[in-house]
Amino acid sequence: MRYYLERNEPRTESDRYAVCKQLSYHLGSELCANAIWEEVQAVHPAIDPAQRAFLETCVARCSVTAWKPAVQTDVPVVSTKQGIVGMVDRITPDGAFSVIRAAGALPFGTYAADRLRIAGYALCLEEMTGAAVTGGYVEYIPDGVARFHTVQPRDRRQLLATLHTVRSIREGTVPHHPLNAPCNRCRHKERCESGGHRLSELL
Ligand code: SF4
Question: How far apart are CA 139 and CA 62, in angstroms?
Fold first, then answer.
């Protein structure tokens, strides 16, 4: 439903993500908040100065973790079979890939959306390299945590089902209101409530 409701909204990068993303280029080397902040301002001149404190927190937490430096960053990946493209944030010397997140980590494991992302990137990399990709890292920068997720068959099933749903929405299907959705903390709650759709959305 979120994809359906947000499909025509412009995508914008949050200030928090801008900070985490810029910090990620320095993982595996000494983290200097001053230098990173200058880069953040160069990339996002309008960034809220209050984000400097967030950067300090990220640097403090990431400084106590042993990160592998990247040999490649922002690597485009593609699966022509599934018709998807993406960008892997970091690839390390051992060939592992990682995705940067501006969210805090769960006490254990990874978020469902992150498992889907890892499955999508693994699928693309397998098609590009012809080699099996067992999983990838999700790097939760605000907590300084890197967590490896091993792709499970259920992740691949979920990915294929999601791609099928996305294609069908693009072809004009209006999705059903899902069971057990996290509606209470969703900004679309009013539009979605009662599980129906406003006539204006259908026309
Ligand atoms: S209100 Fe619920 S069903 Fe609707 S988009 Fe949000 S989480 Fe999904």
Answer: 10
